[in-house]
Design goal:
2 copies of one chain form a homodimer. By secondary structure, chain A is α/β, with parallel strands linked by helices. Helices cover about 40% and strands about 15% of the residues of chain A. Chain A folds into 2 domains: about 130 residues, Alpha-Beta Plaits; about 280 residues, TIM Barrel, CATH 3.20.20.110. Chain A is globular, with a radius of gyration of 24 Å. The two termini of chain A are about 45 Å apart. The model of chain A has no long low-confidence stretch (mean pLDDT about 95).
């Protein structure tokens, strides 16, 4: 890759020979249309055409071909499958994420020649770093604001996710903060509902966190869900900051990558990126984006913390998928864009050892919702149990050994092991 | 549906009994998590829980189940399939599209219980109309600006889509405008590339259109592709307007629905909504959104004109899909939100009769790219051939009869019939 190119990597299936299918994709996404037109000179194609760099055959997936896929008469039952790398000239779009998307992730998903087409990786030139500053805080900045320099970061989601009154939310936040939790977030379902306006939630929560911080000496980071129309994000962010808050959260797909980048330009607090709706783009092996692409684009757009699923989670990903995402999130691209992987979904203390073993890092923000709130002795004990499990994992003590001398942990194991294995 | 509810319709597959699977979805997207938590009182569930309204069995799809779908021991080979309608209390999110998405199209796509899950329709209460004004122009406003009160609207895309110099673009625009074409648009691949900055393109094109309008008495509408970072959309729009332009285009997925709504609040020109990248969300029958949902949300966000594929197009949709989309686009929702369906992809004069017969309307903007530019006598003859074909279709004359007395049409048939059938 030169510094004047973007390289996009696709996994495709097609009944055309893979090299030919890759050529259709490259043509559609640069100078071509269904017929050669007068202005499409050789010089123009040379300068603006996308180029197929390589085509590597892959074993067939056995998945149902996408609707509309063309199978020529006499073709085999199953399409070919291949990984193809295509280079796009940077000067076709410049370092603009929205215009990049129209090229590398645009009409190509609709091509009849494709029985599957998934954008699995994206190599970007340095010009993008000049335009998009990326995460302002990342892992190090998040730890600094939390005053939590080294342990695995333990957090929770307010549960129930929606519907708590402020007079119910206040004592919950108080208990969690007094228990020394590192991080609390609003549920992605709780934005600015008319029954409990965001400004009041911000004010109430920040009061509770300040009071707890006076007692404990550490202020819990709280990610307020400020997801809303683009024009409201800045004011929401400012309200969080002005009342002492240290983090804002947006649903990346709901405000769009462009919305995140817009917020990033105006934000002075870390951005917690929730991935709600990402499954629609990421889950099918036949179409859409691979997680690596989503993560790179979200980091470029400025998220400091990003959800990547959870080990033994309740969502679709395998542990291997989650580990790969954690690894990818911690791998610099464009020389930086360091962001904190957030593990959530069905998390509880019993998963700590497996998570540490599989990921090999403490640079994780692990969120347990029900796994903290539903502890038999209440949320504070839920936090203690999570801490105990992670301490044991870090020190090489087994869960059973740790539970033998930690009552909160023992009760958590008793409560959740049957449900979450 | 009450005026305090949103009803979301899903096609799901699950190895759980469909009613149970629907219940998991409703719980995950409202008050529930994997375990009942202390605050999840009956009163809270009653007020904030999503409700399964009905479950209708559907024949199995035979498609490959989504990754991670749980098949309990002893379950049949194929999952159940059903259409389920779920009511969400409006007060969970209020009339905010981003927060609506987090509820009706959020984490649910990731649930292991789902072997397929697709949001196929959305019924919204009037409150959304209070917040989102929708299209300011729609079909009637577009026709008014074009001075084209009744015929099918004929347009083209600048081709090659990327790479034309301004001294090549100028004569092309001039020829098309002098030929009386109703509409021209930039390719979705041509935003604001460094080799040909948008401001210069806007100025050059508007000069040509003004000059042609002086001669013909009608000004061709040109949709400038202003897709870019959110903070640049307003300035781009204003530049188009200030130099006499009458339309702007954005790639809806690339700027996000929230980005479109943001532009709409600031725009005084019609918004041409390109659907690049929509295939990633819309094409798979197993996940994502149905076209109806995308169209409703794009109209709500403010697009005046929206791409819906093309009859006999080069993309994946069947003619039935495209006809259904045209019909849906012309069906009011929330009492209005009228928008113009745009047909494109592989269009040429030979498709006019079939399109009119299938759609039954002239309220269409039909875009032929190669089908105009690659006409043997050049783009002006390409426009004439498109007009002749649509005139014949409107008057009940066959394509062959019309071609017998229209040389431009005859040449178009000769040129394209073999390629596009």
């Amino acid at each position: 890759m030169t510094d004047q190119q973007v390289v996009a990597v696709y996994d495709i299936e097609s009944w055309l020979p893979p090299a030919q299918a890759a050529g259709v994709l490259a043509g559609e996404q640069s100078t071509g249309t269904f017929v050669r037109v007068p202005g499409e000179s050789d010089a123009l194609r040379e300068r603006f055409g996308a180029t197929v760099l390589d085509v590597t055959g892959l074993p067939g997936s056995g998945n149902t071909p996408l609707p509309g896929a063309v199978r020529p008469p006499g073709a085999g039952r199953r399409p070919h499958r291949a990984r193809v790398r295509i280079a796009f000239p940077l000067h076709n779009f410049g370092p603009s994420v929205p215009n990049l998307l129209a090229a590398v992730a645009g009409n190509l998903f609709e091509l009849r020649e494709m029985a599957a087409v998934r954008l699995v990786d994206l190599e970007l030139p340095a010009a993008f770093a000049g335009r998009y500053p990326g995460p302002a805080f990342g892992t190090a900045g998040t730890r600094r604001l939390m005053d939590a320099p080294d342990n695995t970061l333990i957090g929770t989601i307010v549960k129930p996710g929606i519907g708590l009154r402020l007079d119910e939310l206040r004592p919950l936040v108080r208990e969690l903060a007094m228990a020394g939790i590192d991080f609390i977030k609003d549920d992605e379902l709780n934005g600015n509902p008319p029954h409990a306006p965001l400004p009041e939630r911000i004010k109430a929560v920040n009061e509770e966190l300040d009071r707890a911080a006076d007692a404990t000496g550490r202020r819990t980071m709280y990610a307020f869900n400020i997801t809303d129309d683009i024009g409201r994000l800045e004011a929401n962010h400012d309200l969080v900051r002005e009342t002492g808050g240290t983090c804002v959260m947006v649903c990346v797909q709901a405000v769009g990558l462009a919305g995140v980048a817009h917020l990033r330009e105006r934000a002075t607090l870390p951005i917690h990126g929730h991935r709600a709706m990402s499954g629609a783009l990421l889950r099918s092996p036949q179409i859409g984006l691979g997680p690596l692409v989503f993560q790179k684009l979200a980091r470029l757009s400025g998220v400091d913390q990003l959800h990547v699923g959870g080990i033994a989670g309740k969502f679709y990903e395998t542990d291997e998928d989650v580990v790969a995402s954690v690894h990818a999130m911690r791998t610099p691209f464009l020389g930086g864009y360091e962001a904190l992987p957030v593990l959530s979904s069905g998390q509880w203390p019993g998963i700590a050892h497996r998570t540490l073993e599989l990921t090999g890092t403490h640079d994780l923000l692990v969120l347990a919702g029900g796994g903290i709130h539903a502890h038999p002795l209440g949320p504070a004990a839920g936090v203690a149990a999570m801490r105990a499990a992670w301490r044991a994992a870090a020190e090489g003590e087994s869960l059973a050994e740790a539970a033998a001398h930690d009552r909160a942990l023992a009760l958590a194991v008793e409560r959740f092991a049957g449900i979450r294995g």
